[in-house]
Write a structure and sequence with these properties.
Layout (H helix, E strand, L loop, with lengths): L2 E5 L2 E4 L4 E8 L6 E8 L6 E6 L5 E3 L7 E6 L4 E6 L8 E9 L7 E2 L3 E6 L1
Parallel strand pairs: 2-11
Antiparallel strand pairs: 1-3, 3-8, 4-5, 4-9, 5-6, 7-8, 9-10, 9-11
Length: about 120
Amino acid sequence: QVQLVESGGGMVQAGGSLRLSCAASGRSFVSYTMGWFRQAPGKEREFVAARGWSGNTHYADSVKGRFTISRDNAKNTVYLQMNSLKPEDTAVYYCVAKYALKDDYDYWGQGTQVTVSS
């Protein structure tokens, strides 16, 4: 059974930093893209960042230059380093994974809350 387990969420003041982690288990994630989505209260879920098996990365415009996604393939773990956090980054952050050639994400974590106070 595939599991994605996030950790590292919490509350931080604007301008601060947090690092999210996501440990994946239950299958091989070779050729899988792993990443992060988020959903703020009253808003639609949105893409944040993704990293392919080979290292290519993609970011939402709203987080470029502030967030960095990294991945430890040996540990099946993906990280999201979030710097210069803003109140509008407040959301539940979800770890995701998909086979590289697919459009939709197959696997989702349970989510971790990030709250940025002004």
